[in-house]
Each structure stands twice: as structure tokens, then as C-alpha cells.
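Listing S7. Sequence submitted for prediction.
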Amino acid sequence: MAAGRTPEQLSREFEPSAPTIRQWAVQAARAAGERQDGPAAAEQEELRRLRRENKQLRLERAILARATAWFALETDALGGCAELGGDALHGRGR
């Protein structure tokens, strides 16, 4: 493409398809600041990283919410032992 050859000519000479070569050219132009029609590779990687992190945080939040609910049920099932101190949990309270 920089040498004046089309993606089709390059795809016949090398393995990637013409659309793949076009996409590589677009990504290279974005990375070089020649195109502004989409995120650059570094921005795309940051978006992927942030999405992974967001997914992990949502999972951790769900786990903590379930644990909180479980502990609340356990505390109620023990007759409010949390107010009596630790001895009530071991059968030494009241």
C-alpha cells in the first residue's frame, strides 16, 4: 500500500486476506495519528483492560453482597449473638 500495491496484490503474495491487510493499514494510520475515525491500538487495549477490571469488580461486589446476606441470616439465626459478644457463639453466653 505504501509501495503502491493494493491489498489484493499483497494478499496474493502473502498469507493474510485483503480485508486483513486493509485493517492493518487503518490501525497503523490511527497509531501514527493520521486517522481520527476510531480509537488507536493503545486506547483499544486500555478499553479491554478497563472492561476486564470492571467485570472483576462486579463479580467481587456480587460475592460480597451474598456474603453479607449470609452473615446477616446467620446472625439472626443465632438470636442476635453479635450483641452478646463472642462467648454466645461458643455456647458460653446468657
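Caption to Listing S7: primary sequence and predicted C-alpha cells for the chain studied. The CA atoms of residues 9 and 34 lie 24 Å apart. Residues 41-94 form one domain.
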